[in-house]
């Protein structure tokens, strides 16, 4: 990986972490426009600086960085907020004491500053402080350690994801070459053990999902299960959403609803209601799903669960179709910023048009339609077909799934998707015997009675996909 790529990734991680910081550490800055402007300017400077510093890293420094990281590789970092704060202060003063004793202590000082960065909730800001206050040699070493960290996190991802108990791994396969001779690879899922027809291979719940708006009230706002009226648990702050159980209500509140709840605000244009009203009237779930995604990401950051990869890490690796900017996205972006603005300071800077289009592209390209226990003669207008769905039952919502996003399409798939608990939990079931090491395929579209030509057209229109499955390869 090129140094510039590593540094760009580092800065990306810093920006994301900053959002997490803002929500739980520093309430007084929330409404200060001057502070926001300053932050934006400083972040740009941090990016530039990181790039310059990485270029300066000489071979000798690179070795020092490796050694420094190796010396602390098994160290644990504190998890509670208080412990982190204390640890951070200790490292900062130790680092300062060390570098004032001279260049022979620079590497040790850099380790302290690096450790402080690892627990400090707003690393981008701390980097700016370092840049102004510590010797440039020490600063270069700290940035080098940070870049290495990000690089190894990137490289390790597919060795720890998907978790072993899901019985699949992501495999990279050649997919031809581009016109200028660049190798193209694609990723798919292969099984780590054999399965017989009818066996479940794995199950997963989505990172985020949304319910078809016209079903709000009769289906759970969190898990999309049909609500049994006796056990319905409505939101205590708004009369818009209902949950099928207290567990779903608690999970939703923690992950996103505490921020996205309309709180029964009277004003349809209020920050609380504007996104809700838009979703209900347009039935376009994208901004709501992205709002949930971002709030969940912040929630994960503030929980500091120790998980190595958060929802953002999972999403940023997914393939996408580029979406050209239009008025629709402008509107969606504005709604998102308004809905999250007062709760997530820094969101204005984070949601650039480029990042929004990327997130939307990733979301739409990887969504699956969810169909639960809805009976087919119920009169709802179905969601626009913007997601992979081969279900015969009507779609009750959409979900983004971490692992299943990697499944390739085949017109003769060896698995099928089942929502066996009638909620958002997706299970992949073998439809024939599968050997260990075989790749898994689902149908992105209903094959049924379609001709090869019709299938090709549908797959291309929806996914820009020229199907390479055996059925398509052997028929003209
Ligand atoms: C949602 S992604 C699936 C994961 C993807 N294979 C990856 O590399 O990350 C959809 C993309 O997978 C590839 N793909 C899936 N099924 C395919 C098929 N039957 N034939 C050719 N390409 C396919 C296409 O490149 C498509 O754009």
Major sheet summary line: 3 strands, antiparallel
> Could you say which overall geometry the principal axes of the C-alpha atoms support?
globular
The number of strands is 12
Question: Which segments are poorly predicted (pLDDT under 50) over 5 or more consecutive residues?
Answer: 1-11, 16-31
Decide which structural class fits the backbone. Answer: mainly alpha
Based on CA atoms alone, the radius of gyration comes out at 24 Å
What is the count of DSSP helices, taking H or I runs of 4+ residues?
A: 16
As a percent range, the share of helical residues equals 40-55%
* End-to-end distance: 41 Å
Give the overall pLDDT as a whole number. 82
Query: How many structurally independent domains?
Result: 3
The amount of beta strand, in percent, is: 5-15%
Main β-sheet, spatial strand arrangement: 3-11-10
Q: What letter string, H or E per element, gives the SSE order? A: HHHHHHHEEEEEEHHHHHHHEEEEEEHH
Instruction: List the ions, cofactors and other small molecules found in this model.
Output: S-adenosylmethionine
Describe this structure in words.
This protein is mostly helical and 476 residues long. It has three domains: 3-160, no CATH class; 164-205 and 401-474, SET domain (Beta-clip-like); 208-368, no CATH class. Helix content is 48%, strand content 11%. The protein has 16 helices and twelve strands. It has helices at 3-25, 33-56, 59-71, 81-100, 106-119, 123-133, 136-160, 246-260, 271-282, 286-303, 311-315, 327-341, 347-350, 353-366, 452-463, 470-474; strands spanning 168-177, 183-191, 200-204, 208-211, 233-234, 242-243, 367-370, 397-400, 408-409, 415-418, 426-430, 441-442. The strands form five sheets. Strands 3-11-10 form a three-stranded antiparallel sheet, with no helix packed on it. A three-stranded antiparallel sheet has the order 4-8-7. A hairpin with a 7-residue loop joins strand 10 (415-418) and strand 11. Helix 2 (33-56) crosses helix 6, helix 2 (33-56) packs across helix 7 (136-160) and helix 9 runs antiparallel to helix 12 (327-341). The longest helix is centred in the first third of the chain and has 25 residues, at 136-160. Residues 1-11 and 16-31 have low confidence and may be disordered. The structure holds S-adenosylmethionine. S-adenosylmethionine binds at residues 186-188, 319, 365-366, 405-406, 408-410, 463, 465, 467-469.
